[in-house]
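Onboarding guide, step 5: your first structure request.
Type a short instruction followed by the sequence, for example:

Predict the 3D structure of this protein.
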Amino acid sequence: MAWMAWTGPTLVFFSSIGIALVIMTLWEIRSPTRLRRGFLPISTTRGDRFFISLLSAAFIHLLWLGIIGQDVWLASLLAITWAWILMRWG
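The system replies with structure tokens like these:
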């Protein structure tokens, strides 16, 4: 694994996504999702909203780095808040 620069934040990031995918899979097995409409202009499932939140998190972090350039933890907090809003009302 020396070919990739594994750091603490990288480990936390990828582990969190992996754990979230396992939880979402178990949740889907226990309670199958239905299409629903929220504030997004399309009907989505939980998995769709999760995928959109991951894409949004990437763009939030890129914008944060481009505009502010430091303290990415605040961007992470913003991305987590956005993901919660998206999963709840999206």
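Each response can be followed by summary notes, for example: Residues 8-30 form the longest helix (23 residues).
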